[in-house]
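Technical note accompanying the year-one report. For the benefit of new consortium partners, we illustrate the data format agreed upon in the data management plan: each record pairs a sequence with a structure-token string. No post-processing was applied to the example shown here.
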Amino acid sequence: MSDPLSDVRVLDFTDRSAALTGRILADLGADVIMVEPEDGNSIRKLAPFIAAEASAAHQYFSANKRSVVLNPFDPLFATLAASANVVIDNGQHDHDWLIGLNPELVHCSVTPFGLDAEWRDWKATDLIACAAGGLVWLCGEPKGTPVQGGSDVSAAMAGLIAASGISVALQGAGAGVHLDVSLQEAVLMAVMQTATPSQWVWHNRIPRRPGLSQALRCADGGYVGHLVRPDRFDGFLNWAEQVGIDHGMTSDDWHWAMLSAPRKDNPVSATTLALADALTRDEFAAGALAADIVCLPVLGFDDLERTEQYVVNEQFLEVENELLGRTVAFVRSPVDGMREPIEIRRAPALGEHQALLDELPEFAPSRSVPSAPLDPARALEGLRVVDLTWVLAGPLGTRTLASFGAEVIRVESSTRPDSMRSQIGPDGTPDPDMGGLHNRVHVGKPSLSVNLGTDDGLAVVMELIATADIVVNNFRPG
């Protein structure tokens, strides 16, 4: 498979908040050039360090990129900008100036609160962005104070959104477009399940912190995350009985496994606690798997490289780094499934590719100038997507395609309704069409209800798939 962005040049002026954007574009084949000051991009200075002056963040986020050192007042700065298809920054460049240099340019700015917002001049750390976006409110114990989550969630979300927006702009010939990405708004995508406005508008209810109600400490001190679903309730009861737990429940008590069930005096919660007291982490995870219950062990770093899942899919790669005189372990690219295999090249030394500045007069972007600016709602017009996904992750992805103009046709099971169809409606009772979260992830999609267990139903879906450009599902294999 050819590199999707092999004819695209990207100038990356960003700090940690958008470093993932350039990394994703580079992994897809773009020529991503870090344009750095004399003392280097700030990401080079972020701890922890895997060797002297070798930031782990730089090694990861700057992989597959090139580096030049260039003063913004140098005449070559404008020449370099004119040669690019994409500029990613943190709002430090005037958009009109850039477009004057290159009318075809896609310009993406990632800032804490957006370029046109009331708080546009405010600065923010990940903690501030996550607090303003609502994520901090949801983290911590229900009766405790809000706490910060880990690992720069705002930067991860913003990086994904910016990379997606740039890809759509390139696909839709978005000449002169300026993508304005806010860390605060990006965080909102991470809290969609609880930040649904309908909770307040319909029910006058502020979402509560759920706490670690589905994380259990096992007999050996290890932890698991689990979820007992009503449709797997009998398997859960059988598993508990095999372990010797006297749970006192029957199949008719399945309602205690609903997410909306009260936590206090809940026999399902009591039974899972008893299972955790009796089993080690790995025994609990294996038993849950056998009972077809959602469960994963909480892994420490020392567990990762020997966990069977990661060993089988070769999650970790060794990348030679002659600057460090050693190999560096990398996880596979976040877009590895789109193009395999994605080669990972080490992060560049500061100014390692200065010679490319001598080639600038010979470089010209390859895309032609479109006749009209990008209309985001029509950028993917003409693309047909058959959407076989359910619950949240898959439907949210296809909702993004629909928002950019793709025709997304949702195929639903007539015998096994999506759990999003059981969301609470305006009157406080489950409604298959009016649930708040359902309407957030499925907006803009026509729906087709089919019984895939019949030959006629399967024939209808296969006929539809034959007309599609993309087919999406999020079912597990088998």
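Partners are asked to follow this layout when depositing records. The first helix runs from residue 19 to 27.
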